[in-house]
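Follow-up to my earlier ticket, as requested here are the two runs.
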Amino acid sequence: MYFDAHNHLQDPRLCGDHSAILAELSRLGLQRAVVNGTRESDWENVAQLARARPWIQPSFGLHPWFVPERSAQWQTVLRGFLHEFPQAGVGEIGLDRWIEPRDEAAQRDVFLFQLGLAAELQRPASLHCIRAWGALWEILKNHPLPECGFLLHAYAGPGEMIPGFVRRGAFFSFSPSFLHPRKTARREVFRHIPRDRLLVETDAPDLGPPPELDSYRLQTTDNKPLNHPGNIALAYRGLAETLGWTLQETVDQVGANFERLFGGSTVGWR
């Protein structure tokens, strides 16, 4: 009964292995997965996956890395996909001060439009943030947000910001990449997140676990490692170990949290 709160099954790096990947996810017992678009050119690929497989919950958004690629019609196209899929989220969206070059003003404008759209349509939003936590907080505390909440995917922000984000409706997802030995501090942060706001993700094909824990060994054609979506099971075990919970306790709590954010319920997070 696993739930993947954030991945990119539409990514071309996974397409050559789709049949085997989907078979493995079925074997593991993956119940639902939120598949996030990141740019106009992959939104239709996300839509095709969702049309064919009811366990895929689509999410459509313009990622900050791809803001320079947007067309003049991107807002209209985005609205079109969200209207076609009433269960779809808005994401992956956010702010990023790591990538170079960047236009921070354009990033902010694009993010504000999409966050406003999530609030208008009452859709869960999946947020990306790198090196921009203060700027993100200023937006989240001063603008309308979807009542169901939003996801801070692969949360890597400061522990002291958690209470404020929680008050605004945040959920926080644990990634298999947090199992790298150098990320002890990041795992410790998750011990301070309220149990009813915890989710698990893979971000496949990115943010993979340490090689010694990765039983899939998925690679690109030029032998670069990829994160297999099947590492959702490893991420659940990693979160359980981090919190000192049983795996069943983790599965039950994360499943309930997933339904609260992505299942349409607006009850309980405030």
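Run two:
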Amino acid sequence: MANIKVVVNGVLGKMGQEVLNAVNNAEGMDPIAGSDIASTVDQIALPTGNGVIPVHKNIKDAVRGADVVVDFTNATGAKSVMEAAAPTGANCVIGSTGLSQADFEAAKSLAESNNTSIIIAPNFAMGAVLMSHLVKEAARFFDYADLTEVHHEAKIDAPSGTAIAIAQAAAEGKDGTFEAPAAEKELIKDTRGGNHSGVVVHSGRMPGRVAHHEMVFGSLGQTLTIRHDSINRESFMPGVIMAINASGSSTGLTVGLDKIMGL
């Protein structure tokens, strides 16, 4: 069987470089090109030192001949990838967050009309996906829920897509709304955080973090804490490789790595 030909969008960024390295070292995969709107070069060396790949500013120029395009840029970049890749028959693996409901509907239409696969996940760390699963299972036993997420200082959206997915999993598991008592005197505005179906959400941004999510459930006389930390960007790569492999055996839109993991 021929190797899977992979294009990495945002290839010069931190996540793009991790994806390129993971694909370059994965059995049965070949990185064939990269795309980056900020590129000032027309090629880069592969991490293993066994050749170079072209780098294009326009994703439309990069997708020719690709089986799968991977994107970890932002919502705008993700939409550009899906619009460019699906009509060529290339599948997409999207890790960018900030996509709207309309974007998901457009992705579904693109995948179905072009008989391709588009996989979108808020988090590719398997531990984080398992955390959402465990949160959903535990939620019905508790009345209070506080969720804290902390990411690196350059992350543009808050809360994170993973935090939103965790809060939604809690709401689905609860099949209702948690109690979220308001402060009688809020001495600093918004101290209590955001609110999603009664799940109180707090976002932090600072250097030294990659991705931290911690859910604390509370009830009379007890708390339950479920926490996941991504220590570095390598933590996402097994999930990315899993999604690339899975994209060839499915069509349509798949949202969440949990579907691929069989949770």
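The only thing I checked on run two: Residues 126-230 form a domain with the Dihydrodipicolinate Reductase; domain 2 fold (CATH 3.30.360.10). Let me know what else you need.
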